[in-house]
Design brief:
Radius of gyration: 20 Å
Number of domains: 2
CATH superfamily of the largest domain: Aldolase class I
Structural class: alpha/beta
Helix content: 40-55%
Strand order of the largest sheet: 1-2-3-4-5-6-7-8
Strand content: 5-15%
Number of strands: 8
Number of helices: 14
CATH topology of the largest domain: TIM Barrel
Shape: globular
Largest sheet: 8 strands, parallel, barrel
Length: 319
């Protein structure tokens, strides 16, 4: 059976949304937002802040394993932090070579490192001894900076460095998130390395899933924005009959409840608007709800709209 994984998405798939999406079901494991490693060994509390699930056996409330992603460019510093993280017994440790954000790349992180396959090898080789064999050690990469010319060299470097499996996002850094994903290059990477390769990029529905697997030859896929736009997607890919908006309404309520617990009232509406903005792609009802909450700035006002829409039934209003 194909594994279906939930991607790390900075500023979007935090512990609240991970809990909601994995609670809906269909995922074999997921990955946190990146932990930025730069010049120091981070305290344990930093890792548990990014990944509260570490306090729950590195699993979400529904029992889905959560891998923690590290991002940085210094092999020694990454190794030391991997050792600190490994002591917390995560469900896996992942290395980020895929983030295309300009700020991240200007500071020598994420996809910018794909210009230097040798550095990728040194990072993976330094981290490998710090990760016990019982903890999966993976990496996520894009196809390169501007073109995929070095994609195979990057993948080989990481595999030689000792990773257990590799997620490949079928775009370059410059591609950003513009379609199409270059699935044919994921296939070339898969053929070039001896470790399992997981395909990522531009999977929005079951038809995309089938085409991606056929084009890449990969058994396993990782869902990113497609999972946010349709939280029922992983279960659809498994052939389940899951329904539509009404089936999703309890998850929206759970998300709002989690956001309210985690954030100050003034920040909570923005998080809901962010998710509804993506849900609009798959659900017309989300478009209507988004229009109604978009001008609102107070959590209590948003909550009243959610209650009127039948999403909330017993959450207290707050000004």
């Amino acid at each position: 059976m194909s594994r279906i994984l939930l991607a790390p998405m900075e500023g979007l798939a935090d512990d609240v949304l991970r809990d909601v999406l994995t609670g809906i079901g269909g995922y074999d494991w997921c990955v946190t937002e990146f932990v930025r490693v730069s010049g120091t060994v981070l305290p344990s509390r930093y890792f548990t802040r990014v990944c509260p699930e570490l306090k729950n056996g590195s699993r979400t409330g529904s029992g889905t394993p959560v891998r923690v992603q590290l991002m940085g460019s210094d092999p020694g510093c990454l190794a030391e932090n991997a050792a600190r993280l490994a002591a917390l017994n995560p469900a896996g440790i992942d290395l980020n070579f895929g983030c295309p954000a300009p700020l991240v790349n200007r500071h020598g992180g994420g996809a910018s490192l794909l210009a230097d396959p040798e550095l990728l090898h040194r990072i993976a080789a330094a981290v490998r001894p710090m990760v016990p064999a019982a903890i999966p050690f993976s990496a996520k990469m894009r196809l390169g900076i501007q073109d995929p010319a070095q994609a195979l060299d990057c993948a080989r470097a990481l595999a030689a460095g000792g990773i257990d499996e590799l997620v490949v996002h079928g775009r370059t850094k410059v591609d950003g998130y513009r379609p199409p994903a270059r699935w044919e290059w994921i296939a070339r990477v898969r053929e070039a390395v001896p470790v399992p390769v997981i395909a990522n990029g531009e999977i929005w529905n079951p038809a995309d899933y089938e085409r991606c697997r056929a084009a890449t030859g990969c058994a396993d896929v990782m869902l990113g924005r497609g999972a946010i736009a349709d939280p029922l997607l992983a279960r659809r890919l498994r052939g389940e009959a899951v329904g539509g908006w009404e089936a999703l309404m309890p998850a929206v309520a759970r998300f709002w409840s989690g956001v309210r617990r985690k954030l100050e009232d003034r920040h909570a509406p923005g998080r809901l608007k962010q998710w509804l903005g993506l849900l609009r792609r798959a659900y017309p009802e989300a478009e209507d709800l988004y229009r109604r909450v978009r001008p609102l700035k107070k959590a209590g006002e948003v909550e009243a709209v959610l209650a009127a829409a039948g999403i909330l039934t017993a959450l207290p209003l707050a000004a």
